[in-house]
Amino acid sequence: MTAWYRAMGASLLLVWLAGCSGGEEETASEPEETTTAAETRESPPEATPEAPEVPPFDQPVMIDLSSRLGSDRRLTVEGETNLPEATRLQVIVERELSGVRWRERVSVEEGGFVAGPFGPGSGLPDGGYRVTVDVQEGSVQPRAVRDRLGEENEHLSGPLVQQSRHGLGQVASYSQRFLVGSETRRTLDHVEVQEVE
Q1: What's the DSSP call for residue 138?
Q2: How would you classify the pairing of strands 127-135 and 88-95?
Q3: Tens of pLDDT, residues 59-82
Q4: pTM for this model (two decimals)
Q5: Residue 149 parent element (H or E)
Q6: Integer angstrom CA distances of residue 57 from 135, 142, 169, 176
Q7: CA neighbours closer than 13 Å in the CB half-sphere of residue 101
Q8: Which of 121, 131, 129 is closest to 185 using CA atoms?
Q9: What's the burial of 99, exposed, middle or buried (CB within 10 Å: 0-12/13-18/19+)?
Q10: Run of H or E residues at 47
């Protein structure tokens, strides 16, 4: 009977050892898979240096406007800016008395932009107006512009920059007030008077 117990114990020991040696083979194969995965992860960084690195926009935003009233009494807005090429802007002309607005979307080309003519077919009535130029949110900017300004325009800086009202990052806005009329008006505000050409 003792021999039988010894034989059973020896066979159990062999089965147990065989089970342990199978685990070592699996453990040995796992690092090979990890090495393969690590090699796969290293491949994409080799591809990224092909794309040129674009420096972020590091200047304070500058926008300068000039407006002119045509013979049809409609307003054309021209501007200069240091924003990157193809940056999307929105130009708004608002009549102060009634709140009526005209708007146009434009893109920066060669450091400037032109929008308009603004106003009804009969021309702008005499009165006060405000021209506003807004740099739109990063989500609507072309890929090349987002590369410079950031996904949420985080690289914009300067006194014209503020948080978007919709929580979509930063925007920049420049505003200028002017008067339309054939005679000079008296005002205490800093305002540009537009006369019909």
Answers
A1: G
A2: antiparallel
A3: 999 999 999 999 999 999 999 999
A4: 0.67
A5: helix 143-149
A6: 14, 15, 15, 25
A7: 10
A8: 129
A9: exposed
A10: helix 2-47
